[in-house]
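I'd like us to work through together how a protein chain folds, taking it slowly. To get us started, please write out a protein record for me. Go ahead whenever you are ready, and we will take it from there:
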Amino acid sequence: MPIATISPVTGETLRTFDALTPEQIEQKLQRAANAFRSHRRTSMAERAERMRRAGEILEADKDRLGRLMTTEMGKTLASAVAEVEKCAWVCRHYAEHAAGMLAPRPVDVGKARGEIHFLPLGAVLAIMPWNFPLWQVFRFAAPALMAGNVGLLKHASNVPQSALAIEDVFARAGFAEGVFQTLLIGSDAVGGLLDDPRVAAATLTGSTPAGQSVAERAGRNLKKTVLELGGSDPFIVMPSADLRAAARTAAKARCINNGQSCIAAKRFIVHQDAADEFERHFVREMEALRVGDPMQDGVDIGPLATASIRDEVDEQVRRSVEAGARLVTGGKRMDGPGFFYPPTILADIPESAPAYREEVFGPVALLFRATDVDDAIRLANDSDFGLGSSVWTTDEGERARFVTEIEAGMTFVNAMVSSDPRLPFGGVKQSGYGRELAEFGIHEFVNVKSVWIQETPPDDHPAAE
């Protein structure tokens, strides 16, 4: 895949970039190694000052950066600007809280002094997708850099300008040269980076096959990885729910980011007593969404990021209908230039249909009917994925069962799933492992070191292993 900005609105190639040569990659790796030796010795106060400055730069430059993301991958301008603001938030969050998260923790070990220290690992390779070009990176980079690590970014090939803009933000914020570097490279160069001893760990957000490939290569090198992979999140609606509110949120949850989000709600599991009414509200909400130029005010859904993504979504819908799914609304490619696809609802989906098992990465909602709570949980868990989940009920007993029995890394009650710097983010099953954000995220890429300090000669010794 060429490293290029290709407009999803017109299909026109706007700018191309040459991939780094092996010699240039070597220079950046050595620069990262050198930077780590000095960055790890900086004080938390110094790091926090620079991270706060990064947040200020993002806020001041949010309109330009938002337009850049919209140009490269087609999200609406309003959502792109909001994404930049969220990146500023995560910078501020870790600037404020990282010192406490990483402070040595005392442990009572008797007459000696026990402590747990959290120390940086080195250069962390981040392999990131195009759907949230800034947020996916900053939610890794803010905690990683605050922990004393340095970052190497291999971004998706269709958002090179966004990738370079991120490096520029950290440089302008005062982080030393080499602390955060963008590598304009193809996926074929990732294996060599994982093999290099100067790369200490890796994090990937992307598809399950990509995660398997990175985990296998990193595993051979005994390197830590965090994987945030695909999702087919359930959105469960029970009879006690406010069905109008649930339907409004359902349309937003399915079509956020033009339907291209791992944590977008994808499978809508509705109790049979509420199914007909919910479907009427849901169809009305989906059909009211406006598809068009993402730079224009009032547009709810822009184009899909690439022609191949649009074609894959269209193929999944077509084959699912052929397998017996009922097409409720949408489902036909839109005429004209660009990679647009309309809000679509499929219902009565047989297990043989592609949409039943596969993640559909576009504005396509899948409607299922459940007979009771047990059936809703069964349907929710009948997936290879386990990232997020949303449940709508006012019944405390149902709520407790959903929270404890749904196989997912996140459950939101009467709300759509979202990422928040204060909460850990990640999944189970084929949605990956490890966590980003919150204290759990900053601890993923540190050496959790046990320290035993004996102030006076001991009378005896702790038992050996």
Summary: The chain has two domains: 4-229+431-451, 233-413. Residues 4-229+431-451 form a domain with the Aldehyde Dehydrogenase; Chain A, domain 1 fold (CATH 3.40.605.10).
